[in-house]
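Q: Got a minute? One more chain.
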Amino acid sequence: MAAELVRGQNHPLTQTRLEIRVSAGHPVVAGATLADDRGTVHGAGRVAHPGAPALPGLEVPRQAAADHRLAVDLDAMPPDVHRVTVLLALPVGTGGPTRFGAVAAPFVAVTGLDGAEQASYTVTDLDSESAVVALELYRRQDAWKVRAIGQGYADGLAALLADQGLPDAGALAGAIHDAVAQGLARAVAPPPRTADESQVRAAATAGHAAGALPPTPAAPAAGGPGGPIDYSHPRRQAPPPPPAAQPAGTGGPAAPVAGDATGWTMEERLYNQVWGMFEDLARTAAAFRSAVDFADSRMEQELDRILSGLSDPRSRLGSQGDAAREAARAKHGALVERAREVLDRDLAQLAAESEVVEPALPAPYAGWDNPCWHAYRSPMELPMAVRLGDLGLPESDSLGLRIPMLVRLPLERGLWIDAGASAGDGLSDADAVRARAAQTAVVHVARLLAAYPAGGFSVHVVDPAGTAAAALAPLVDAGVLDGPPARGAAGVSEVLTRLTERVDLIQMAIRAGAADSLPPDFDTAQQLLVVHDFPHGFDDRAVTRLRYLADEGPQVGVHLMLVADRQDAAEYGPLLDPLWRTLLRLTPVPDDHLADPWVGHAWTYEPPAVPQGSAVLRTVLAEVARARQERGL
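A: Always. Here it is, folded:
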């Protein structure tokens, strides 16, 4: 029976292969330390954190999230490890809460391989603390127990680590927060939850508990060989049972339907459905990978146990040893085959759903090859989101399954179009890479202009050396820019000064409670600054202003799109590191650099592509220009 612990209480553990689940309601950093019998952690190599997530017998998540799963194998711990301490910390430098007293109390549960909860603990009575030791697993006379700790640290992660005997605690805490910041910079932000979604999630949880819903197929947990993982999205139906288990006459699973998700409008339902597919693919891939990892680990353990049990060492090389190896490989193959069957079934279901959903997407969500663009008209209202490309995993490549990457509007963070060589880059010429990056930026700008109502979005372009003239031609020719692209250092300074003053003015009006008292001729449109070939044409003052716009601009409707090769800006060193972290990196060629917010897979991002020889881009921009002219812009 599961034990609900209070601070200081312990409880025996009946299994050694465990999963520790954390639910905090707000993104937190999860990690763990391995200590000796005196509670001392001997060096940074005994700390598992997002920058170094795997240690013997332990694996932690690679990024900050509201929900975590830590995989623990106590049998695989080094002999000198007597204590596994689970720690939580609030990310720094993200603009979020800085103390646990401002967020919901974290809930931590220890489960076995079968998913059954052994013990849980709600970390209460926290106030100014920004880091906390949640619980610990400790060894006493060859038996393991769990103890609820709940020790918070107002001085943060550095104080927590120092309390465990780490002499370089400050440096390690800084490295952990840097790794978290880098993870947040590459993560695709999840959509905000709505009230009806929370109700559906609660109902789904209750249904599983009561046995009203079909259980999800058993598979080891994501991130390590833990218990079963529920990879079905809470807003969507559970995967259908295998054909053999379906009642006679049912004719198989119901055909997928576009808009099969919660929401008040079809646009909202399609948005939620796409995110449901994204999460489903993330979790089903995690279940498959973990099942394979579990099968590999189990085969190794069985071979070690069987072969070490043979009394005559010579028999390990004889028929007995061969038979043991063959039996272990057969079990391994059966486990992997079962996981593959579940994966193939779920991928087929998602592929069928994608074939139905993709043609039904409205223009802001649709690819450039969707026929809906032929009937495009400037919208009257701002859509929920815009499509900035596609995402895929290796498991889905065989079916060509890609999930649209939808980003909420207005943009919550700026965009960085990478003009440097990437891992997936097949272009060797640096000039060709830069040209592709400029073209990709123009496609993104056109998409944003098309999503906004006429007059709701203004675009400013800085091209100090004029090297992007050819790529910018569709925007310039259509007349959809706020003005001609700024050239030279003087042009850079003028645009940055104008937008910085705009941010200052709006902020002062908001602080004074006079947001409705701006000048009558004030342009209320959202603003986008496109900077090409950064940092050419930028001095230290201009760089400082650009950082200011990146930090403060999105809150008052001023957004940034940077086309740059980070290596070109290396001379600025740490000065620009915060800027890079605040921007969402998008590449002009496919590259596996983005992470999902659930299990942290490395997703292959594919930039939006206009069909070869198509005039759709210029046609859409012409419609944007026509609508702007009707409004006298």
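A: The first strand starts at residue 3 and ends at 5.
Q: Perfect, thanks.
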